[in-house]
Amino acid sequence: MKFDTAYSLSLEEKLSIYDVRELNFDETTAFDSDKERFLCPNDECRAAFAPSNGLTTFNAKNVNYLRTPHFKNTPGTRHIDGCRYASHKAGTAESEDEREESFPSEFVLTRRQYQHKTPVSGPEGVTPQTSQKTPSSHTSTSHNCSDTTPDKTSVFAHPVECYVSNIDNKDKLKGMPLKIGEHTATYWAFFKKIEYLQDNKGLIYWGRIKEIKDYTSSLRIDFEKKVWLDKKPYSVNVYLNKKLIENYRKRKAFLEQVKAAMGNERPLYCFFYGVTPELKQVPSKKKPEQTFGVFSADIENLDHLIIREAPGLES
Ligand SMILES: [Zn+2]
User: 59, 179, 208, 306: which could form a disulfide with 184 (CB 3.0–4.6 Å)?
Assistant: First the structure.
């Protein structure tokens, strides 16, 4: 049985596994999912047991993962009768874990604020922030607190995993709605191969990475596929400003992704949202008096860019 959400004892709210990954990689937050306690998201079920009746995580800390991250029962986890998170069969097939089945209907562009309600260390008692605490799971900052599928996410990896792990099921992707900003489309329509970026602006573009070049003040991700315009092929790339990376709260994890891509041992893909590469004229290296055209964009928000393996995308 895999769980789309779990209740975090220290944060006193329900988190998706992608929220947990965000917290693990966030260098500004002291959070380690191995030391946290996650409980059944079903309120009634959770209330019936002691807080020691916990769940475990899968792929919560792997920067580069292939199999879909999730929460799962430990061999000793108990649930009340009728809890939808109870395992029905022993030895459930591993294949059940291979795809993301909880499709958020909205990708929220502002980052979710996670507040540690229980001080990690320090004296017993009340810290100033806890006075703002509202009871149980109805804080205004959390997006959704039902015990079913989380409806919204602010973690880009979540819709990307929905797409990648279900790529062999086009009908499913064509049937699932996704809202980003003012736009609503299906998962299928929102994800656009980089070579077709001229079809529409404001989508999630993706493509296989050809190489990543390291310049003085930026990294440049070059895509393998080219964009065709007036019967001519143009290269596509995105620039990542190094200052943006230096100040990124998930810097270490991000650089690990980049390093893997530069080593280029396996095919890697880049997904991004927020900018649409446009045709620009840049000076030629060999003949600076000449220019050539390239589709290019500057990434503005690293939260909305992912480099990952994605087997099955090109079959
Ligand atoms: Zn339960």
Answer: 179
